[in-house]
Amino acid sequence: MGQSFEVDYGNNTFIKDGQPFRYVSGSIHYARVHPEYWRDRLQKIYSSGLNAIQMYVPWNLHEPYPGEYNFEGCADMLQFLKLVNDTGLLVILRPGPYMCSEWDLGGLPAWLLKYENISLRTSDPKFLIPATRWMKILLSMVEPFLYRNGGPIIMVQIENEYGSYPACDHSYMKYLHQLSISVLGSDVVYFTTDGPTKQMLTCGMTEGTLATIDFRAVENATAHFELLRTFQSSGPLVNSEFYTGWLDHWGEPHQTLSSSVFTESLDSLLGIGANVNMYMFEGGTNFAYWTGGNYKNDNYRPQCSSHDYDAPLSEAGDPTDKYFAIRNVISKYLPIPAGPVPPPTPKSSYGPFHMQFYGSVLDLLPRLTPTGPHESLYPVTMETLNQYHGFMLYRTTIPLPGSDKALLNCTGIRDRGYVMVNGISQGILERIKEPQINISYNPGDTLDILVENQGHINYGIGMYDPKGIVGNVTLNGTLLTDWSMYPLNISNVLPEIMNDSQMKSERPRTPTVNVPSFYYSPVTLDPNNDTFLDPMGWSKGQAFLNDFNLGRYWPTKGPQITVYIPGPVISRDRGNIVIMFELERAGETIQLLDKPIIDGPT
Length: 602
Fold this sequence. Notes:
This protein is of the alpha+beta class. Helices cover about 20% and strands about 25% of the residues. It is built from 11 helices and 34 strands. Strand 9, helix 7 (about 220-230) and strand 10 (about 240-245) form a beta-alpha-beta unit. Helix 8 packs parallel to helix 9.
């Protein structure tokens, strides 16, 4: 007889291979952990006493452009599933197409935003046709990993917290359920996850699936499960996102949750027989441009690159005091694997290192955009030009009489614009604040606005969030036209900087010190050890080790100060180069630390 997993609604439990079963799991996202560390993290999860992990699948990571697929490196989902199975853990799969998770556009590919008036996460064909194509590919790939086939996947989620989305499109949820059945079969345990309110459960549940809820440790679990019972009278009780901490936004204090508060609530949940998934068990890192943003009350709140989450395993995968406290609670209900917990990864500190100026964004523009600009009477969005992350430069010639103080207004800035006139910095346009500044210029001067996409909104009503300049730009009330737009491909210049980094003489720092520019320093690092880039003294930008995009830094805003550098990205066979694309004001030196600083001042 083969393996089986099902729901026994009569006895309010799961049945695994004919026996009652309760899972205690933790969330880990493969895209937020370097692939060479996947096994280490999974072993630490297993050693904690958990019997399962929960994982999302980010559509935009795997289909960066329509019809072009990526399943290599940090996107090698099947290798991750194999390692989970080898470790002896089960999988609760959340395939999307939407995942939220503080990830850019909640995992939806930004190329969807090219379709005007698209209704995301609904039955709108502009969304549903590409989503269906993707889901068929994804579900077909994971089908061999279902538990019945000898794999680790015991449950599959339909959409994600759909009750929190205002569309409340029941036909869309039903369609996704039927689509999943058509590929995976009807004998899979399908489930939904929603917040514990009447509205969320009304819009998020779909017939034929197990309804689960999510809530924090400080909330009333009894009341929440009683509400769930008014919607679903029987079945196992599940908290699918039992929060071990919380996410961080730039400019807001680092979020923490005490071990004692969390473990007391965990003990209570396990004591009543509930199934629990701890979100997150390791938060990991939003490398490159993968951070998202929240939007509420007309306020855009971009999220930090560190996704530490105050989780039981730190951003660098180290067991914390919270980890061992959770392990002690679990030991009351499940057997703890024999043997010691795998140790923390080793860390090293280095420096300081003097950062050398390489060139401004204007100096390097021909290499950053080798195909040249796109011309348009009015500004167009980044997505229109297939620029789904990072930066785009908007340029025009000022046709007005000169002025020492003219008001530049750009209400459609998404999200942050670095303004230059003839290569001289004028200030910053910000989506969060009033998007206007005063500039000085002469007639015929060149106006450049380098626009930074700080992360597409990943939750709620504002998810249709095109980036770049999405409206008109005026100067003292006069509409500016005839724009040239340069989508920047930073990966074009990283090899150039690496190859030129052995130059004996440093290029002089000119007034471009306040213009977005590239800086670099050769560094000698131990590839067996992790480290943390400390950019104190710098302002804001993007950090790289060699050609690996480490993520955003913004020490002037906080709370995250350091940027995590996992050991596997350190080159073993050639020199290593730290490269910084500094957007505001450059510092002089950097240091590499053996411990993170993610609770800095804000």
